[in-house]
Amino acid sequence: MTALTVKNLSSAYQKKIVLDSLTFSIEEGTLTGVVGPNGAGKSTMIKAILGLQPKMTGSIEFFNGKLKKLTNHLGYVPQRGAVDWDFPTNVLDVVTMGLYGQIGWFQYPGKKHRQLAFEALEKVNMAEYANRQISQLSGGQQQRVFLARALVQDADLYFMDEPFAGVDAKTEKTIIAVLKELKSKGKTVLVVHHDLQTVPAYFDHVLLLNKQLIAYGPTNETFTKSFLKKTYGGEIHWMGSDQFVESL
Ligand SMILES: Nc1ncnc2c1ncn2[C@@H]1O[C@H](COP(=O)(O)OP(=O)(O)OP(=O)(O)O)[C@@H](O)[C@H]1O
């Protein structure tokens, strides 16, 4: 089944077009890296797909339009900087919020729900921080809390905006383990990703974006020198990945 169909999607800020007629569809059960230079429109694309940013043109369809209550099926891990970390709540509560689709917003979570949230924290090695205020976490710890929330949410299609940004090697391993677990459960995941060198190891599909869709497809066919040069132009050098790209 197709998890996501995007047709002719365009979006603009103050009339400046930042996404230009994107058309692609993503198969269920795939792990896609969304790659492109700063300002390419990666975050905007995710927000436009989720209805958090207005579209100028285009249509979006999830699971061939077969889902009834969409919110339970979509998971979003925003960029860390886009979240209000001063909000007075603790780690376990943030993760438990991922269960509201199942609990219902007007009912209180019970012991079973807290247990599920706690188990998700264990998976990302954050159980010992369960009662900590979220304002008192490091960047990598914040990232893991959001992943735990995505895990308990049990959505079908996930969008993650730079989950690997600024995390150490150990946290990176934890995050990739979570992504692979989601994939093994048949979930579909789109991840905005900046480190070109890890793309082939992490993602089975890649979407190359620079305002327009440069290419989308299986990583071994699409993550090529010529498509990357087309995506980054001269900036590939600045990314510090030119040697790697030449080796492809
Ligand atoms: N709220 C906004 N108002 C005006 N312009 C914006 C706004 N948000 C983003 N833009 C512009 O839209 C373009 C796409 O931005 P976007 O954040 O989607 O890119 P990105 O690929 O996610 O970048 P990065 O890799 O730097 O996170 C950029 O030129 C950016 O300056």
Could you explain the architecture of this structure?
InterPro entries: AAA+_ATPase, ABC_transporter-like_ATP-bd, ABC_transporter-like_CS, Metal_Ion_Import_ABC, P-loop_NTPase. GO terms for molecular function: ATP binding; ATP hydrolysis activity. Pfam families: ABC_tran. This is Manganese ABC transporter ATP-binding protein. The structure is a single chain. The chain has about 250 residues and is of the alpha/beta class. It is built from eleven helices and nine strands. Strands 5-6-7-3-8-9 form a six-stranded mixed sheet, with helices on both faces. A three-stranded antiparallel sheet has the order 2-1-4, with helices on one face. β1 and β2 (about 15-25) form a beta hairpin. The longest helix has 16 residues, at about 170-185. The mean pLDDT is about 90. Adenosine-5'-triphosphate binds next to α1.
Instruction: Tell me how many strands there are.
Output: 9
Characterize the main sheet: 6 strands, mixed
Rounded to the nearest angstrom, the radius of gyration is: 18 Å
Low-confidence stretches: none
Tell me the CATH architecture of the domain at 1-67 and 156-167 and 188-248: 3-Layer(aba) Sandwich
Elements, N to C (H/E): EEEHEEHHHHEHEHEEHHHH
- Overall structural class, as computed from helix and strand content, comes to alpha/beta
* Level-1 CATH class name of the domain at 1-67 and 156-167 and 188-248: Alpha Beta
- Widest sheet, order of strands: 5-6-7-3-8-9
User: Separation of termini?
Assistant: 31 Å
DSSP helical segment count = 11
Domain ABC transporter: 4-236
Keywords: ATP-binding, Nucleotide-binding, Transport
Pfam family, one: ABC_tran
Protein name: Manganese ABC transporter ATP-binding protein
